[in-house]
Amino acid sequence: MKNIGLVMMLFMMTAFSANATTVVQGKEKAKKVKTVRFLTSAICGECKERIEKALNYTKGVVFAELDEESKEVTVKYKTKFLNEDEVKAVVTGLGYDAADTKRDEEAFNKLPKCCQSPGHCARD
Amino acid sequence: MNKIIIVFICLFSSHLYGQETDLQLKGKIITINAEGDEETVPGAKIQWVLNKAVAFSDDAGQFEIAAASLPDTLMISFIGFQTIYYKVVDPSLDFVFNLKEGKVLDGIVVIGENLGKHIDLMDPRHVETIGTDELRKAACCNLSESFETNASVDVNITDAVSGAKKIQMLGLDGVYTQLQWENIPLVRGLSTSYGLSFTPGTWIESIQITKGTGSVLNGYESMAGMINLELKKPNEAERLYVNLYGNKFSRAEINVHGAQVLSKKWSTLSLVHISNQFVETDVNKDGFRDMPIGYIAAAMHRWNFEGKNSEAKFGIKAILGDKQGGQLGSSSDAPLGSAWNARFKTQHVELFAKNGYFLKKRKFGSIGLIGQAKYHEMHNTFGNTSYEGTQRKIYLNSIYGDIIGNTNHNIKTGLSFLLDDYDQTYNDSTFLKTEIVPGAYAEYTYNSNDKVIVVAGFRADYHNLYGPLITPRIHGKWNISKKNALRVSVGRGYRVPNPFADYNSQMASSRLWVVSPDIVPEDGISAGVTFTQKFLVNDNVASFTIDYFYTHFLNQLVVDMDISANEVHIYNTNATSFSHSAQAELSIQPAKGFELRSAFKYYDVRGTFNNILTQKAFVPKFRVLLNAGYQTRNKKWGFDLTGNWIGKKRLPSTATNPEIYQRDVISKNFWMLNSQITYNFKNFSVYLGGENLLNVIQNDAIISAEDPFGAYFDATQVWAPISGANIYAGLHFSIKQKKK
Question: Which ipTM score applies to this complex?
Answer without folding.
Answer: 0.76
